[in-house]
Amino acid sequence: MFTEKDEAKKAELKTSIYEEKTKTKLKYIENMLAANGGDYFVGKKCTIADLGLLNIVDRIQLVTGNDLKDVPKLVAHKEKVSKEPRIAAWLEKRPKTPY
């Protein structure tokens, strides 16, 4: 997908990868979040698991351009974790990359 030169083909690949593989896995992960109460993946505060999912959801949105409306709880979780003061400070100053 990243090496594809044809923009139409690249868009088609992004959509098919999301629809055929990524969406199902994200829904499974969203169910895990719900099973733990919906706030955090482990316990009652932000852990490395939450930071990992913040990164994964952010990258998927960036690369695919998909708003991930199929997994609203994961998107809400990403927004919540992004607002943790130290995380928000890092996100503001981190180097910007295309991926």
Distance between the termini: 12 Å
Query: Helix proportion of residues, in percent?
Result: 55-70%
C-alpha-based Rg, rounded: 15 Å
Average pLDDT taken over every residue:
88
Low-confidence stretches: none
Please tally the helical runs, counting DSSP H or I stretches of 4 or more residues: 4
Q: Given the C-alpha coordinates, what overall shape results?
A: flat
> Strand portion, in percent?
under 5%
Q: Report the major sheet.
A: none
Give a short summary of the structure.
The protein is mainly α and 99 residues long. Helix content is 67%, strand content 0%. It has helices spanning 7-35, 48-64, 72-82, 85-93.
What does this structure look like?
- The chain is an all-alpha fold and 99 residues long.
- It has helices spanning 7-35, 48-64, 72-82, 85-93.
- The mean pLDDT is 88.
Which short descriptors sum up this protein?
99 residues; mainly alpha; 67% helix; flat
What is the fold's blueprint, element by element?
Elements: H1 7-35, H2 48-64, H3 72-82, H4 85-93
Helix pairs in contact: 2-3
